[in-house]
Amino acid sequence: MEIFATFDDSVFLEAKDRVAVTLSSYNAKVCEPQWFCDKTALNTDDPLEKQKIYKFRGDLAVRQGQHQEALDAYSNCQEWIADNNLTIRRDVLEGMARCCSKLGQRDRALHFADLLVSIYQRFKAVVSELSALQQLCSMLPFNPWHWYNLGQTCLQLLENSRTTGRCESADEDKPGEAAELGEDRIWLKACSGFIRTRLLLRILRQQQSSFVLQRTESTLQTADQVLQRLSPKETTLQALTEVLSEDLIPDKMREEYQDGDSLASVRVQSFKERWWDRILLTGVLEADGPSHGMN
């Protein structure tokens, strides 16, 4: 048998001489610290460069506590963000919402936060959507509809989990926050959202009538039904109700408390600091989840 019979003669030919390619020299761009603060930095026709400059200026101003300057920079940055650059657009909008909160501009802060929720829903950025809803709950803690939407979003995640076997989907640009999508935490946050909704609506319905009262009664019924499906233990209901009802004092719930200068006091603590950390400290997860069921 001829061992090399199947080889083509071309296999043993010498390789053709290769043409050497000479690379042109490359000079890396060297930037001075805070180069974007220089007045001449904006002397460019490149939209991407202008976007970067304004974004960096806004981020720096936030770190320095100069929230009006940061808001102005972010506003200018918006004009130069490409339509398909969702990541930067969301980051800038979130920065603007935070700046408006710090400056006591409630309506603008709520506008940007609502816009963020819509964007996150459209692109199924679940972690960011939950974060935006929590920000709304922090800015208007006595608005039951933000709490209701938070509960509904978590409920939808749990239902998806029953179908796909996992809560989906975590944001690609926020992998470190994927732990918040654990089924036990989503379940607990859903319970918290509907309990807070129920607490608020029970107080508000005392002053309501007509179709407004009808909507409240319908939502209360839905919240009760959902909590039955989530089936938390009685001890869990009691612990969550205690934490979530501590600030529901008539004097604090007056409408003027959420207007004007008082907004600064409302936003002193984030959702995590004000409610979530304290909810976790109750130990209800260890006692009631993740072995809970959803009927």
From TrEMBL:
InterPro entries listed in its UniProt record: DUF5588 (IPR041404), TPR-like_helical_dom_sf (IPR011990)
Q: Which Gene3D superfamilies match?
A: Tetratricopeptide repeat domain
User: What superkingdom does the record give?
Assistant: Eukaryota
PANTHER family cross-referenced by the UniProt entry: ZINC FINGERS AND HOMEOBOXES PROTEIN 1, ISOFORM 2
Its name, as the record gives it, is Chromosome 8 open reading frame 76
Organism equals: Gasterosteus aculeatus aculeatus (three-spined stickleback)
